[in-house]
Amino acid sequence: MSTAPSLTLTRLDVQRLERLLEDLDEDLPGVAALQAELDRAENVVGHDEVPAGVVTMNSRVHCREESSGKDYHLTLVYPKDAGPEGTVSILAPIGCALLGLQVGEQIDWPAPGGKTLKLVLLEVEYQPEAAGDYDL
């Protein structure tokens, strides 16, 4: 597995995600991984300081899987909002890996059957902070 890229998170996302973790059973899938991501965040900034090319909660992103060239358009959401096509929960391995990623960075995506796919973040199509939507 490749080295995980450095993370930039907003204070508001960290606060909301820590509250979410407090309300969840620590044995639920994804809880430990999300806590680990929060713990390794190197830059925690105000919502008005986050660069537009960083994935925050409720961001819509455009990724490409390296080997197949397949494009994905995903929206990173809280578990209660997951389900509709194109949404990915923060507790899913890909959701957790997307949080704090910057355009141009690459992540490993554990796929079914033990295969690991490499995804490159091509664009943050919508970021709430850049759009001034702080209440999502």
Quick rundown:
The chain is α/β, with parallel strands linked by helices. It has helices spanning 11-23, 31-39, 93-98, 128-131, and strands at 8-10, 43-45, 60-65, 71-77, 87-89, 106-110, 116-126.
Layout of helices and strands:
Elements: E1 8-10, H1 11-23, H2 31-39, E2 43-45, E3 60-65, E4 71-77, E5 87-89, H3 93-98, E6 106-110, E7 116-126, H4 128-131
Parallel strand pairs: 1-2, 4-5
Antiparallel strand pairs: 3-4, 3-7, 6-7
Helix pairs in contact: 1-2
Features of the shown structure:
136 residues, alpha/beta, Chitinase A, domain 3, 7 strands
Structure description:
- The chain is α/β, with parallel strands linked by helices and 136 residues long.
- The protein has one domain (8-129): Transcription elongation factor, GreA/GreB, C-terminal domain (Chitinase A, domain 3).
- The protein is 24% helix and 28% strand.
- The protein contains four helices and seven strands, in the order E-H-H-E-E-E-E-H-E-E-H.
- The strands form two sheets. The chain has a five-stranded mixed β-sheet with strand order 5-4-3-7-6. Strands 1-2 form a two-stranded parallel sheet.
- Strand 6 and strand 7 (116-126) form a beta hairpin.
- Helix 1 runs antiparallel to helix 2 (31-39).
- The chain is globular.
- It starts with 7 loop residues before the first strand and ends in a 5-residue tail after the last helix.
